[in-house]
Design a protein that fits this description.
This protein is mainly beta and about 120 residues long. Helix content is about 0%, strand content about 55%. A hairpin with a 5-residue loop joins strand 9 and strand 10.
């Protein structure tokens, strides 16, 4: 069992920045993908950014150019740098780790609240 613990959420004004961090209890290198999702009130959880084992990354169109995902395999951490934040970015952000293949497994963190005021 792997535990993912997020930190770094909070309240920020529009145009500001926040950095989210996710610490894993085990090695993240073995996961096919690690990333961040978010869920706003009344909306479905959506992918924000993801980094795969092959070092490719993908982002939601709404955050491209503003958010940057990074992973440190040595420290077993995944970070999300969020710049130029908008009120529409307000949501609970979840760290995610996935193993694909014959026995796919998905792990989630408990979530961290990000609130962007206008």
């Amino acid at each position: 069992q792997v535990q993912l613990v997020e930190s770094g959420g909070g309240l920020v004004q529009a145009g500001g920045s926040l950095r989210l961090s996710c610490a894993a209890s085990g090695t993240i290198f073995r996961f096919n993908a690690v990333g961040w999702y978010r869920q706003a009130p009344g909306k479905q959880r959506e992918l924000v950014a993801r980094s795969t084992r092959g070092d490719s990354t993908n982002y939601a169109d709404s955050v491209k150019g503003r958010f940057t995902i990074s992973r440190d395999n040595a420290k077993n951490t995944v970070s999300l740098q969020m710049d130029s934040l908008e009120p529409e970015d307000t949501a609970v952000y979840y760290c995610n780790a996935e193993s694909w293949g014959l026995r796919p497994v998905t792990y989630w963190g408990q979530g961290t609240q990000v609130t962007v005021s206008s």
